[in-house]
Amino acid sequence: MTLTAELLMLAYSAGVFPMAETRDDPEIFWVDPKRRGILPLDGFHMSNSLARRIKRSGYEVTVNRDFPAVVEACADRVETWINDEIYDRCVELHQMGKAHSLEVWQDGELSGGVYGVTLGAAFFGESMFSRRTDASKIALAYLVDRLNQAGFILCDTQFVTPHLASLGGQEISRAAYQSRLRDALQRDADFTAPTVPTAQELLQRRTQIS
Question: pTM value?
Answer without folding.
Answer: 0.94
